[in-house]
Every structure is written in C-alpha cells, then in structure tokens.
C-alpha cells in the first residue's frame, strides 16, 4: 500500500526523531516513552515483534528497514489512517500518531473536524476531511497543541519536551 509519499513521510519522521540516535530516560531526561531509537519505543518494538522480552540492546541495534516497516504498520496501516494518504493532512496525522499513538492522533483529527470521536477513520471522517480541506490543517494544529499543553500541565516533569513538541506541531502550519 505504501507509496512514495508515505515512504518520504516515514523517513522524515525518523530524521525528525534523530535516527539512529538511541536514548534512555534518566533524571535529567525523564521521557515517559522509555528507551527510544528514532522515535520507536521499546514497547512499540516489543509489540511489533510479538516478543515481550525484546531487550533495550535489540532496540539499539534496530535497522532502519525494520524501523520503517514498523512505522508503516503501527502508524499508517491502522485506525484507517491510510485512507488519508491523498489528503494534505496525511503527514500531520501520521506524525501525531508516532508522537502520541494512532488512536490519539485520529481522535485529535476528529475533534478538529467536529465529528464523532471514535479513533477510527471511516466514511464520516473522510467526508469531513474533504469538506473541510481548507481549514482542517490549522484546526488540527490547534487541537494537538492544546492537548500537549494540557498533558504537560498534568505531567510537569515533561515540560522540558514541550518546546520541541510545539515546534514540531507548528511546523505543520506551513502545509495548512
């Protein structure tokens, strides 16, 4: 199902996430996502491989080809996100999925559209995306930014990440 646009988006996400850098949470870097390589958490890799005993060392040695396959399956080919591939907001929804999970990403989109929020992109969501094509990008930036600020308010130890998260969200205004 993957086209050149999807491939480019996934490679851009790995670049934005610092591929091939591996990080582990610490007191100085309290990332709630746990050990991460290029935006891929140890938890995501364990689910992808179907192995709860996948080690941090295996995450450290994760190859880019597998990382791209994981991103495609977990953040594009799920929750109906692939149905948006021809839409201008597709990259934004995929990026949000990698940062916050595909369910949360779709819920943010549905909130921005003012449709039923169920975390699945179906006919109603697709029709609303098409009908609001000129405004949905900006609305999604607003919904996502406000959610991240609220998240940091309830998890103040994550404040150090907010500036980067908001920079990332606001970068999608150029496409909106």
The rounded Rg comes to: 16 Å
Q: Provide the β-strand percentage band.
A: under 5%
* Mean pLDDT across all amino acids: 96
What is the domain tally? 2
Q: Which word captures the global form?
A: globular
Secondary-structure element series: HEEEHHHHHHHH
Please mark out the parts with pLDDT under 50 across 5 or more consecutive residues, or reply none: none
Written overview of the protein:
This protein is mainly alpha-helical. It has two domains: 1-77, no CATH class; 83-176, no CATH class. The chain is built from nine helices and three strands, in the order H-E-E-E-H-H-H-H-H-H-H-H. It has helices at residues 4-16, 42-49, 56-60, 64-75, 90-100, 102-113, 123-131, 136-154, 159-170, and strands at residues 22-23, 36-37, 40-41. Strands 1-2-3 form a three-stranded antiparallel sheet. A hairpin with a 2-residue loop joins strand 2 and strand 3. 30% of the residues are buried. The mean pLDDT is 96.
